[in-house]
Amino acid sequence: MSARKDYPPLPSVPHHVGIIMDGNGRWAKARGLPRHAGHKAGVDNIRPVLEGCVEFGIQVLTIYAFSTENWQRPPDEVSGLMRLLGMAIRQQLQELHRNGVQIRHSGRLSGINPELQKQILHALEVTKHNDRIVLNVAFNYGGRSEILDAVRQIIRDGIPPDELTEELFSRYLYTGDLPDPDLIIRTGGEYRLSNFLIWQAAYAEYYTTPTYWPDFGKDELYEALLEYNRRERRFGRVLDPEPTPV
Ligand code: IPE
Ligand code: IPE
Ligand code: MG
To answer: Is a pLDDT exceeding 80 seen at residue 2?
Structure first.
């Protein structure tokens, strides 16, 4: 299928989009390939989707690449995923940097192999002043451990209970000063968050598609943005209140 060339402008573009990149294993299985081939194709798909995000005016893209629960996969698959992140950093960092991408990491560094930790920290350091788009990589990420890590740090900092607000709490999360996601996309067809941005996504719009992640392209990203534009975000309010009776 050839990619569609023109995308009519959208009335409203989400500031921050989160993507649960699911379905790599099934993508590979459908082709008679090992799961690792699906993960490789999945990593290769990040670049065109990131380009689409820049083109459509999205300012922050968070991608869920490895969850705290994914450690329970077979050791070979886990080490393959670790190697893929290292390779992606080695092969793509310079180009991402040239294109003005600011890389961030959300997740626990501890638990990741020290060499890979160094590579991640290097990528953050090199790109920290870039401002075209933020690519926030959720790697060794779990929403619950993020909340626990925040609570631990808040206690260590001696924040008095009455001074703790939702805003202050949010700043203790891995996402720090990033705005909450407006739209969460999940590929691979499941209807669950799988521990992704569970605090931050409180009012995000949710879009799921059966397309496996390696097949999710710019056209479908645009479809998701069209669907986002059809949603009415109410944040608990009534948008057209009845006139007050006199
Ligand atoms: C998502 O694809 C990638 C990671 C979780 C690392 P999966 O590997 O979960 O693919 P499926 O869901 O088994 O198809
Ligand atoms: C979510 O996918 C995690 C990532 C995409 C990194 P999973 O495949 O791990 O989620 P479950 O197990 O189907 O909930
Ligand atoms: Mg999966």
So the answer is: no
